């Protein structure tokens, strides 16, 4: 994807967000019942922000058609989609699923072992290097889970999820 | 000169075995964090904030300052050895540091970087103790009108100077940050805005989860997305770490100029260490007698970049302490940490805690001392640190992102906020939206909102005081000028007199 197309798509998104802020600010309770000063209504700044964001979105959309170098630059290139996808999934599952569902120690242990193994396990390696990778992941998993549990629970007195 | 007296008193408070122990481990950890590409100073300070809740306020702030100073310096390690800046602040360092490493003089490059960083920080600290007290005193006269324009100015200038490609993206990032700050109970009538029916949003979005997401999780994603660099292994036999004093003396003007540029860049709201380094580097190249060496292992270029980025650290603390307006993204986290520990940054700081400026300056100085000791002695160990694979490092970082965020108020909801900001932060970064104005927007949103509505209430809806009071008028002039400078015709006309003077001076 080129920056011009990415900018156009985000400009549309920002325009919608800007209009939503404007409408949200305009329709917000003006607290007349509390007889506040009309210039201090809670929706004032959201309305202003909505207008400004909409203007910026329109300018961004327009600027994406200019024949400039930055518009032709590729976006989301030069990296590994596979690594990004796996990292996103595994981190999100841990943060939003495992923590709170499993006890913190086990959630963290499972996450750290899986993360390390996925990115460092030598699929084509010798049996010995594979065993070392598994052992390394297990040690890291226990270390991180135990270390962070003890640190936060015993030292900072946090009730872990 | 009472500022210098406070600095000495601050040093006296901090020179206890326990405090020095905190400084020793926190600075070392900061250098390690900074030297690892993918872990930045802001992320280090944000994560460390979550690890220092239980410390007393002086120790906690001291640890955070040491982390900040260490991390900004640590970025130079990977910039020199890998050609990948450990933090964005060290991008300019890699231009001359990496060629030096390729010539087998990595040790000397690191020594120069250490000396440059230490001298830059000391220059910044001097300006911190001299500028902060009078600035806080002047800010005591600020009313709602001035604070409104200060917030607008901060976000605008940060958006303008930190944007990679077009200032428009910086402005949009700032507006998005302000929009985020609109969520939750507002500060005047306690009316809940935009909570989308979610009760957890009634209190608004806390800064620490948002920052840990935008600078922690987003950086984990960026690190896994990017390819790893190669450590330079070549070593010249004549290479040594202790820099030649004659070499430093030869570049005394470059060091002084870079220190001043870095501090001034630090004072400008939301414009961080990377801009400080680039501005110092550009100024050094322009005035250098050895222009041709820049980019090919110039000692002067390396010193300018490192002095510039390190001077930003104390510089950015000046507005952070006296106006509660952060000078960089890391100092934005520091402001949040100060509030957590019961210190209220802002103009009243000189009345409520008159010795705080001296104390924080002393913290920066001691951190610099430890940084210099480590920098000149542990070069080989840092090379080993750079060999730690991401597959082992990143799960640890992410676990700290999650549990640190949760520990703030023991709510699972904060972890959701962190993940959201991490994913959004990654996408926005890839599309060249700067993060600093976004963070500044979140921090300054409340100030801007309250100041505008309070000002309008005071003036009974009249807009005139926003433009006629002297300080307000000055802010308006600068704001209009900085927006207008985006137009080529205005820029040409405005810069013409400066070009004319420059041409006469060069002739």
Automatic annotation (TrEMBL), chain A:
<dbReference type="InterPro" id="IPR009936">
    <property type="entry name" value="DUF1468"/>
</dbReference>
<protein>
    <submittedName>
        <fullName>Putative tricarboxylic transport membrane protein</fullName>
    </submittedName>
</protein>
<feature type="transmembrane region" description="Helical">
    <location>
        <begin position="73"/>
        <end position="95"/>
    </location>
</feature>
<feature type="transmembrane region" description="Helical">
    <location>
        <begin position="41"/>
        <end position="61"/>
    </location>
</feature>
<keyword id="KW-1133">Transmembrane helix</keyword>
<keyword id="KW-0812">Transmembrane</keyword>
<feature type="domain" description="DUF1468">
    <location>
        <begin position="10"/>
        <end position="161"/>
    </location>
</feature>
<keyword id="KW-0472">Membrane</keyword>
<feature type="transmembrane region" description="Helical">
    <location>
        <begin position="131"/>
        <end position="152"/>
    </location>
</feature>
<dbReference type="Pfam" id="PF07331">
    <property type="entry name" value="TctB"/>
</dbReference>
<feature type="transmembrane region" description="Helical">
    <location>
        <begin position="101"/>
        <end position="119"/>
    </location>
</feature>
From TrEMBL, chain B:
<feature type="transmembrane region" description="Helical">
    <location>
        <begin position="471"/>
        <end position="490"/>
    </location>
</feature>
<feature type="transmembrane region" description="Helical">
    <location>
        <begin position="317"/>
        <end position="343"/>
    </location>
</feature>
<feature type="transmembrane region" description="Helical">
    <location>
        <begin position="204"/>
        <end position="225"/>
    </location>
</feature>
<feature type="transmembrane region" description="Helical">
    <location>
        <begin position="106"/>
        <end position="131"/>
    </location>
</feature>
<keyword id="KW-0812">Transmembrane</keyword>
<keyword id="KW-1133">Transmembrane helix</keyword>
<feature type="transmembrane region" description="Helical">
    <location>
        <begin position="415"/>
        <end position="431"/>
    </location>
</feature>
<feature type="domain" description="DUF112">
    <location>
        <begin position="21"/>
        <end position="440"/>
    </location>
</feature>
<feature type="transmembrane region" description="Helical">
    <location>
        <begin position="138"/>
        <end position="159"/>
    </location>
</feature>
<dbReference type="Pfam" id="PF01970">
    <property type="entry name" value="TctA"/>
</dbReference>
<feature type="transmembrane region" description="Helical">
    <location>
        <begin position="355"/>
        <end position="377"/>
    </location>
</feature>
<feature type="transmembrane region" description="Helical">
    <location>
        <begin position="60"/>
        <end position="86"/>
    </location>
</feature>
<feature type="transmembrane region" description="Helical">
    <location>
        <begin position="389"/>
        <end position="408"/>
    </location>
</feature>
<protein>
    <submittedName>
        <fullName>Putative tricarboxylic transport membrane protein</fullName>
    </submittedName>
</protein>
<feature type="transmembrane region" description="Helical">
    <location>
        <begin position="171"/>
        <end position="192"/>
    </location>
</feature>
<dbReference type="InterPro" id="IPR002823">
    <property type="entry name" value="DUF112_TM"/>
</dbReference>
<keyword id="KW-0472">Membrane</keyword>
<feature type="transmembrane region" description="Helical">
    <location>
        <begin position="20"/>
        <end position="48"/>
    </location>
</feature>
């Amino acid at each position: 994807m080129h920056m011009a197309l990415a900018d156009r798509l985000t400009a549309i998104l920002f325009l919608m967000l800007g209009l939503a802020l404007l409408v949200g600010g305009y329709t917000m309770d003006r607290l007349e019942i509390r007889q506040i000063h009309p210039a201090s209504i809670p929706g004032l700044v959201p309305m202003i922000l909505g207008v400004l964001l909409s203007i910026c979105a329109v300018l961004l959309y327009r600027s994406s058609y200019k024949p400039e170098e930055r518009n032709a630059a590729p976006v989301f290139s030069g990296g590994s989609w596979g690594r990004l996808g796996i990292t996103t999934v595994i981190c999100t599952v841990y943060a939003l699923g495992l923590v709170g569902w499993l006890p913190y120690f086990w959630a963290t242990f499972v996450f750290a072992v899986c993360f390390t193994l996925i990115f460092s396990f030598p699929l084509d390696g010798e049996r010995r290097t594979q065993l070392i990778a598994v052992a390394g992941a297990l040690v890291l998993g226990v270390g991180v889970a135990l270390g962070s549990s003890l640190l936060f629970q015993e030292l900072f007195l946090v009730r872990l999820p | 000169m009472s500022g210098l007296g406070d600095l000495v008193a601050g040093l006296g408070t901090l020179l206890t075995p326990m405090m020095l122990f905190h400084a020793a481990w926190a600075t070392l950890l900061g250098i390690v964090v900074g030297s690892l590409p993918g872990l930045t100073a802001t992320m280090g300070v944000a994560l460390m904030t979550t690890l220092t809740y239980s410390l007393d306020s002086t120790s906690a702030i001291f640890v955070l300052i040491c982390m900040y100073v260490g991390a900004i310096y640590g970025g130079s390690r990977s910039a020199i050895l890998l050609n990948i800046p450990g933090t964005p602040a060290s991008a300019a360092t890699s231009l001359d540091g990496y060629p030096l490493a390729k010539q087998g003089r990595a040790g000397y490059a690191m020594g120069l970087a250490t000396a440059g960083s230490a001298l830059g920080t000391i220059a910044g600290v001097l300006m911190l103790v001299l500028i902060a007290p009078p600035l806080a005193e002047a800010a005591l006269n600020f009313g709602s009108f001035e604070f409104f324009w200060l917030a607008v100015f901060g976000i605008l200038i940060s958006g303008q100077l930190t944007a990679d490609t077009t200032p428009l993206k910086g402005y949009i990032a700032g507006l998005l940050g302000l929009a985020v700050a609109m969520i939750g109970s507002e500060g005047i009538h306690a009316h809940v805005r935009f909570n989308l029916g979610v009760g957890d949003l009634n209190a608004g979005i806390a800064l620490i989860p948002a920052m840990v997401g935008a600078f922690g999780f987003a950086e984990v994603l960026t690190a896994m997305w990017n390819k790893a660099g190669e450590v330079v292994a070549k070593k010249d036999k004549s290479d040594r770490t202790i820099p030649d004093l004659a070499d430093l003396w030869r570049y005394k003007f470059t060091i002084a100029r870079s220190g001043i540029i870095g501090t001034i860049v630090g004072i400008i709201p939301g414009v961080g260490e990377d801009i400080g380094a680039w501005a110092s580097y550009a100024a050094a190249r322009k005035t250098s007698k050895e222009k041709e060496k820049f980019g090919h292992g110039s000692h002067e270029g390396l010193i300018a970049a490192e002095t510039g980025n390190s001077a930003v650290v104390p510089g950015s603390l000046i507005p952070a302490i006296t106006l509660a307006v952060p000078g960089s993204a890391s100092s934005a986290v520091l402001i949040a940490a100060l509030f957590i520990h019961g210190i209220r940054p802002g103009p009243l700081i000189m009345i409520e805690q008159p010795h705080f400026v001296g104390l924080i300056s002393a913290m920066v100085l001691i951190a610099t001392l430890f940084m210099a000791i480590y920098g000149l002695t542990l070069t080989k160990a840092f090379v080993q640190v750079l060999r730690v694979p991401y597959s082992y490092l990143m799960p640890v970082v992410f676990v700290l992102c999650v549990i640190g965020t949760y520990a703030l108020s023991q709510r699972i909801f904060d972890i959701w906020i962190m993940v959201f900001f991490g994913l959004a932060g990654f996408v926005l970064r890839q599309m060249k939206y700067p993060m600093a104005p976004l963070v500044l927007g979140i921090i300054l949103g409340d100030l801007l909102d309250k100041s505008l509505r309070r000002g309008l209430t005071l003036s009974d809806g009249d807009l005139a005081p926003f433009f006629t009071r002297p300080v307000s008028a000055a802010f308006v002039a600068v704001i209009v000028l900085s927006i207008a400078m985006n137009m080529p015709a205005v820029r040409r006309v405005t810069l013409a007199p400066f070009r004319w003077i420059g041409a006469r001076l060069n002739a």
